[in-house]
Amino acid sequence: MTQETQTDDVVERTFDVTRGLSAGDVAERVARGEVNDVPVRSSRSVGEIVRANVFTRFNAIIGVLFVIILSVGPIQDGLFGFVIIANTGIGIIQEMRAKRTLDRLAVIGEAKPRVRRDGVAVAVSSHEIVLDDIIELGSGDKAVVDGTVTEASGLEVDESLLTGEADPVLKQPGDPVMSGSFVVAGSGAFRATRVGKDAYAAQLMEEASRFTLVASELRGGISTILKYVTWFLIPAAIALIISQYRLEEDDTPEAIRRMIAGVVPMVPEGLVLLTSLAFAVGVIRLGRRQCLVQELPAIEGLARVDVVCLDKTGTLTEGGMNVTEVRALDPSLPVREALGALGTTDPRPNASLQAIIEECTAPADWTEVATIPFSSARKYSGATFEVDGVRQTWLLGAPEVLARPGEPLLAEAEELGSHGLRVLLLVRTDEPVEDLTAAYDPARARPAALAVLEQRLRHDAAETLAYFADQGVATKVISGDNAVSVGAVAAKLGIPGADHPVDARTLPTDRDAMADVLERNTVFGRVTPQQKRDMVAALQSRGHTVAMTGDGVNDVLALKDADIGVAMGSGSEAARGVAQIVLLNNSFASLPSVVGEGRRVIGNIERVSNLFLTKTSYAVLLAILVVIVNVPYPFLPRHLTLLAWFTIGTPAFFLALAPNKERARTGFVNRVLRTAGPAGVIAGTACFTAYLIARDYYGATDDTREAETSIATLCLFLVALWVLAIIARPYTWWRIALVLVMALGFALVISVPYLQDFFELKLVGTTMPWTAVGIAVVAALLIEVVWAWIGRRYAVPQPQEAAASATAR
Q1: In Å, how far are 47, 229, 450, 565 from 104, measured between CA atoms?
Q2: Angle at 301 between CA 275 and CA 727, to 5 degrees
Q3: Phi–psi pair at 328, nearest 5 degrees
Q4: Which helix (H) or strand (E) holds 796?
Q5: Is the pLDDT reported for residue 677 higher than 80?
Q6: What CATH number does the domain located at 1-206 have?
Q7: Average pLDDT of 199-205?
Q8: Is 311 a catalytic residue?
Q9: Residue 704 in 3-state DSSP?
């Protein structure tokens, strides 16, 4: 078979579509740039990483202040600038490590379409496809370029991700194929007519495969916080600048230093860095477990999930199956021959058909005339054969679909299914198989045999399900298999509600009514692909955050619509393409690791956000109080840089990367502002009180300014250290050590003469230092009381309580 090739409406040559392009043809097209040059990307480029870490709003503010402080000196007042440079460098390095991990995993998990070159079907990377390549298609394959069908055998293509049309489209030779669509049944081939950026969905697919930093409650919350900070920062900074210039008219450099000292701590410069750093480290850790994170917020999102929808096959059970019995229902029919012949009709058999192929030998004298491939919507496949000049049609599929209602064999099949076995019914009919694609009448078919298959449970499935139950995450098993069989498998795994599985054919179509059924039940069988999608939407309509796991083409729509889609690495190309997380090791047991990383990121970023926002709160308050009382700002930049080192920056780095198993909760912004705001106000008030008392005690002259600043620094350090001690709870040995090391570091600074001179910190006498300690103790106790009240006022139920509440509903 030959076909003309056209480029720019000019016929170039003809070639045999059964052989595809030759090596010379491919080389010519590569030379002309007719290559599918849209790269598969799972991470940001190096340039994007550098720009994202360097060119930020707060880096710009700090950078300008750094340049100004360098112009007036001394260098120790510019330490905050070097800290920002170091932080930016660390952020770039960690994101580069995450990029390398993701790119390596993306190559491992990349689907490779099969194209015909010189008469041989070879697997190539998507970016190696050239114009006019003949690309083979099978169930679960995704079209990576636009093209025209050249051959089709029951080829049904789902274009819903592109057009919104739910029903699969039956393709015939000459029909168009759009990139981004995927095969749900049958097989065929198509010729690439548009490649690279010319393809219909090229830009869409590139964006969908990126390692993104968007659509995250955590990052969105931090952006909101930074917006509020900016609103407070600008007027406070302007007022501080004016007041310090008025007070230090004779010493402009000193006024500049005091002004910059007041502005710098208002900027939570390390918060965004630590957020990106925590995510990047999470990606690296998950990469070591062969988990490909295709969208960054998925790490956070899975930690927030409260319902997990599980496809049974390939998730709870292993992909392979064994035929345990072929139970003949009509001894006069050639049952094993028919099963063996059906096995030859599908070039890419699913697990059930593969088991039958291994069990039953195909007869040599059966000639295939026509076929209909298996479809999750139809629940059966079939073929018409010519045997000794006589045509006969055989169908294989779900007993409750192929048999007449009330047939005794249905009870037999249900009994087998109750033991967790998969049961398929083989029927014989005289109708041409082409007439059975859309309509089938069980009354015109003869039941021939029951094929009984055994499914192997994943050894780690029960432990993983127990983990989710312990964490208050509800599980819903939704499968296309017989409901009784699905219930039996679920019962073996200890899933609640497995004793009363629901046949999805009885589900209401109304979303609210469906949601009611889903809330009350756990196990569902005979679920169609569209129903899986509807079930996800129904659960979401009740406020649930839903994760969907699956590996087949019948899971694609639900994976796409779920809040988090998780696909198996051995699953269909289409399933992997729409999922946010791909388990390349095909281990369902990897999900707790993803949840754990998400909880670590969310919980720890909330911890360090409290540290940074407490600092911002007391910095803004101090600026306001200084303006109102009309006194010099109590600190130089070096003092607040020192405080930030020991109470925020260094401990936040360790806390952001520490283990954290706290369950993720919504309302991140409100919780942080509720705690950090009062803590900052108390710390700022205590510090300013100690400063005013010191000014009165020491005399408030230029010669006593260092002593006054030292008292304010001591008081603020002690209060901030106590905030750190609260944030570090619950205590472990290393958290206690972290707080003690920070305290020891500050003690060295105020006791070693060289460091005293470098930072201009020296405690004078004993009265005021102990006064500062007393004020700090009162402030610390007040913070404890306020945070305890907030904790009781806004308490949330524990996972077990939440689970009990969900069960009661």
Answers
A1: 19, 39, 45, 21
A2: 45
A3: -70, 135
A4: none
A5: yes
A6: 2.70.150.10
A7: 53
A8: yes
A9: helix
pLDDT per position as a tens digit, 238-268: 887 788 777 776 677 877 887 888 888 887 7
Residue 539: is it exposed, middle or buried by C-beta count within 10 angstroms (0-12/13-18/19+)?
A: buried
Task: List, in order, residues 6 or more apart from 23 with CB less than 8 Å away.
Answer: 117, 118
What residue has token string 């202040």? Answer: 65
Closest listed residue to residue 643, CA positions, set 728, 736, 773, 743: 743
Choose the most confident range, by mean pLDDT, from 177-191, 279-293, 389-403, 449-463.
Answer: 389-403
β-pairing verdict for 291-293 and 581-583: antiparallel
pTM for the model = 0.69
Q: How confident is the model at residue 696 (pLDDT cuts 50, 70, 90)?
A: very high
Handedness of CA 579, 222, 99, 290 (dihedral sign): negative
Residue corresponding to tokens 């009514």: 513
Per DSSP (E only), the strands in 515-562 are: 523-525, 546-550
686 pLDDT band, cuts 50/70/90, is: very high
Please name which of 440, 336, 354 lies closest in space to residue 398, comparing C-alpha atoms.
Answer: 440
Nearest to 711 by CA among 694, 723, 728: 694
Neighbours of 736 (CB within 10 A): 12
Measure CA 720 to chain center: 35
Q: What is the H or E stretch that residue 578 is in?
A: helix 573-578
One of 25, 158, 311, 555 is an active-site residue; which one? 311
Instruction: Report domain extents, the chain.
Output: 1-206, 213-283+595-795, 291-316+459-586, 319-455
Compute, in degrees rounded to 10, the torsion defined by CA atoms 19, 21, 24, 26: -150
Q: Is the peptide bond before 74 cis (omega within 30 degrees of 0)?
A: yes
User: Tokens in use for 89?
Assistant: 């460098």
Pick among 3.40.50.300, 3.30.450.40, 1.20.1110.10, 3.40.50.1100: CATH of 213-283+595-795:
1.20.1110.10
Distance CA 22, CA 1 (A): 15
Q: Is the pLDDT of residue 771 over 70?
A: yes
> Domain 319-455 has what CATH class?
alpha beta
Helix, strand, coil proportions of the chain in percent (round to 5)?
Answer: 55, 20, 25
Query: Average pLDDT over the chain, rounded to whole?
Result: 82
Q: Which residues of 158-188 are buried (b: 16+ CB within 10 A; e: fewer)?
A: bbbbeeeeeebbebebebbbbbbbbbbbbbb
Give the β-pairing of 390-397 and 10-16: unpaired
Listing DSSP states for 157-218 in one string gives EE-HHHH---S-EE--TT-EE-TT-EEEEEEEEEEEEE-GGGSTTHHHHHHHTS----S-HH
Domain 291-316+459-586 bears CATH identifier 3.40.50.1000: yes
Report the candidate in 175, 188, 10, 217 with the shortest Cα–Cα distance to residue 116: 188
What value does the mean pLDDT take over residues 47-54? 80
Distance set, CA 294 to CA 145, 174, 354, 510, 567 (Å): 21, 35, 31, 33, 11
Q: How many CB atoms lie within 10 A of CB 31?
A: 9
